[in-house]
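Researcher: Quick sanity check before group meeting.
Model: Go ahead. Protein one:
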Amino acid sequence: MTSVVVADDQELVRSGLELVLEARGCQVVGTAANGREAVDAARRLTPEVVVMDVRMPVLDGIAATREITAAGLPSRVLVLTTYDLDGYVYDALRAGAAGFLLKATPPDRLAEGVRTVAAGDALLAPSLTRRLIEEHVRRPPPTGGVPRALGALTERELEVFDLIAHGQSNAEIAAALVVGEATVKTHVNRVIAKLGGRSRPQLVVLAYECGWVRPGGTAGH
């Protein structure tokens, strides 16, 4: 069973999420009413996933995500947000969240998302990701060739990076490049290692910030 800590400042929401997840094969090992409690629970209980609300007292979900990531804790953070253009979500991705879902997500999809994140994959809805980033990242100046930040990548790794930046899953990347998923995972791991151990969502943010992908979905190369 996937172990989970649920962090939300509303008791009714916490209880509802706990019931939803427990009924679908997840084990809720703890709850938190604010970001500070979420960080403490992640340290104490080391759940596989922290389901994190964004707007909470004491310490908000973004700051809590940043602390969990910076501490090197094994827990991965799945951010829940009410609005599909919530400006805080972009900051949460930069802070190291493994992905995000809307609170209106159907229960089965939420449980699936928790398991996806626990398995080490990113949970990124391509259309929602692009909308969020395009809303909150200013268009970078045009760049010629490969941005310096990506200079360590091989041609194939750049192809993989580009597909990640457009929200493609490993299966979709494998189909696009006509290779096996195991090969894709190897390339993805190398890209992450060469770019400083960034999470997959952070790679998407980097792609926009360095101009590789520009608002509107155009590749920068």
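Researcher: Fine. The other one?
Model: Protein two, sequence then structure:
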Amino acid sequence: MTTTTVPQTAADRATDKTTRRNNLVLAAFRVVVSFLFACHGLQGFGLLGGIDGQGTAVPFGSFPGWWGSVLELVCSVLVLVGVAARPAAVLCSGAMAYAYFVVHQPTGLLPLHNMGELAAVYCWAFLLIAVLGPGSFTLGRAFRR
């Protein structure tokens, strides 16, 4: 039994190159956004300047602050390494939607007026990761190989 290979056309090579580039950019986006979000979560525990720039932590067990910090840290690490990335990204997105509408939005209509730009951007960034998935470059994919 002989198998014949069909030569790849220029269009196929261009598509492969575009797919590889898109996966690389998605991985970089996922890693950078997750790392920054993890830093945000660490602030709730008094690290990286804390919640006030002087090392103050959110009181242990308080809702939503302490639990939000736990969720931010754990889920951002999962998204960063690409393990259970979609559900973790949905939780991150939801946490930031909650933060925007419960904490920021009551103080002003627009994100520039209520200081909720970061919550809105994180919400949409993690929603994008949840929809597109983590991409090809993940720790989870490396374990499956």
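Researcher: One line on it for the slide.
Model: The mean pLDDT is 89.
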